[in-house]
Amino acid sequence: MITTLELRPLRSDIYISSIGTSLKFLSRSYANRSVRILRYPDDLYDRSPKKLSTETMSIKPESPERCKDGICFLQLVKTKKSTLPPLINAAEIFTVVEFPQSETNQDEVVAIKKIQIDYGLSRISWQGDPCVPKQFLWDGLNCNNTDSSIPPTITSLNLSSSGLTDIIAPAIQNLTNLQELDLSNNDLTGVVPEFLANMKSLLIINLSGNNLSGQLPQKLLQKKGLKLNTEGNDMLLCTKGSCNNEPEKGGRHLKKSIVVPVVASLASMIVIVTALIMFFVLKKKKSSKSKENGREAPRTSKKKRFTYEEVTEMTNNFERILGKGGFGMVYHGYVNGTEPVAVKIVSQASVHGHKQFKAEVDLLLRVHHKNLVSLVGYCDKGKELALVYEYMANGDLQELLSGKRGSSVLRWGTRLKIAIEAAQGLEYLHKGCRPPIVHRDVKTANILLDENFQAKLADFGLSRSFTNEGESHVSTVVAGTLGYLDPEYYRTNWLTEKSDVYSFGVVLLEIITNQRVIDQSRERPHIGEWVELMVAKGDIRNITDPSLKGDYHSDSVWKFVELAMACYNALPSNRPTMSQVVIELIECLTFENSRGGTSHDMDSKGSSEVTMTFDTEVNPTAR
């Protein structure tokens, strides 16, 4: 017997409709023997469905039944094995609505969806038709849909700061009417493709702030009327003129006339040879000194290398303590007297201090993401070791949830925002880095928040990279924090990306319950076991943080708990990937934002709603 039936929003492909049409809701009905008015508590508009009056109903399982001339024929037929008569609980009827505009050019639809797949983009608005209707235009796109009789095409694509990795997607060249392309501030690699020069409509290309390399195509530099920005790509080479072209009137490029005298060339050669000799001499001395000290120096980087005197000065002689970590104290300071920073001093008494220091420096020098704490610089003078990070004004998530940083309560929308951003940082370590990186110490204390409550993962001292990209696990000594440790990793010493997923599941449970991970006063001491017990009882109010006072969408909270328990699954193979976690969290946010008229502490711009099915059962046993 079915005791509860939950109806969620249906995908657009559930009901078959002809091209250029949509579905419009017509009516809502209920069917039972009661004559009382039915109400759904979570319905913002308190709608009361009418009682359905009909003698015969039929439902075809293969496809939805259409109505003709306003008459619908539906029939419910009892199966041979059924012991009860047919019963219908409710019915919803839709009608087909013709779109006044033409659909987006199909070649461009295929191209933009290929770009979405190639980059793993997940945004709330990226569903349905990219350009039609205008009010549901995909985020980051502009289209030339002024003439409703002509299929619109995409004229502008803005994927700036979207966490893009890998090469510039070849599918971009299939957007034949594209005029503006912005791929700035991502982590794109490889060469600048020549097909960009062959796109006739392209007027503006912004590739700044990436890791592109190789020779910039000469055809691109010579393309008339093109505005090109490639700043911040240090490995990118230009054979003639400037890499950053600004068009003049009439479509000409501003070209610098470069005159290089023979004398200057010879002088440059001498300087280069001298510099190379000094470099190798100093490198040899440094290598010898490192061996004498019994340790290897961190990899070179553009990040500033501070002296211990500079560290002392920036912290005003270690005046203000921010906190204490596993390997030393953390102090507040200023770089150049203006930029606030957090300075971690590695304790000389720490047995593993230098190993953790080197691991964190090496990782943060090569890994950059908006949801990972940035390294400003470091100091490794003798036994004096220090890490200088960007300052996170709102502390860590553990303090914020516990109320140590004030009496204000984190709203549910804000908690979802923090969870999504932390998940995106972890996803980048797993999927955006080559080879992948496992954090190994995911917990609420290592999720920091800046002045805008943007969440960033921190403390990479225990992180491990796979030796090769194709590896599924690495054997290592168990390390991490009690309560967050993956039991499978603890048992086998096999570290995988799913070990981080388990820890993140515990973090999600902390966010929803605001309870300690280990609490001996509870019926079940570990938070995961306790939530399992509460879910079995079917009452979500026993799980959620009482300080929320029910101010949340129930579907959002239930889905959040389901996801947390899927991550907490004892079998790594049954846990979702972090990419799936991000998508499911965004769907939780979509439910929460659908409440309407409710204040939310977040901006959902750039987010995405995508339905994802796990390979395992993620639902609680009771609902």
TrEMBL record:
Topology of this chain in the membrane? Single-pass membrane protein
The residues the record assigns to binding ATP are K344
Kindly list the GO CC terms recorded for this protein: membrane
Per the database record, which ranges form the Protein kinase domain?
316-586
Please give the start and end residues of each transmembrane region.
258-282
As its record notes, the protein acts as a catalyst of:
L-seryl-[protein] + ATP = O-phospho-L-seryl-[protein] + ADP + H(+); L-threonyl-[protein] + ATP = O-phospho-L-threonyl-[protein] + ADP + H(+)
Q: Which GO terms describe its molecular function?
A: ATP binding; protein serine/threonine kinase activity
* Highest taxon in the source lineage: Eukaryota
**Keywords, alphabetical:** ATP-binding, Kinase, Leucine-rich repeat, Membrane, Nucleotide-binding, Phosphoprotein, Receptor, Repeat, Serine/threonine-protein kinase, Signal, Transferase, Transmembrane, Transmembrane helix
Compartments (UniProt record)? Membrane
Q: Which enzyme class?
A: transferase
Which Pfam family, any one of them, does this sequence belong to? PK_Tyr_Ser-Thr
Q: What is its EC number?
A: 2.7.11.1
Primary subcellular site in the record, as a coarse category: membrane
Provide the protein name.
non-specific serine/threonine protein kinase
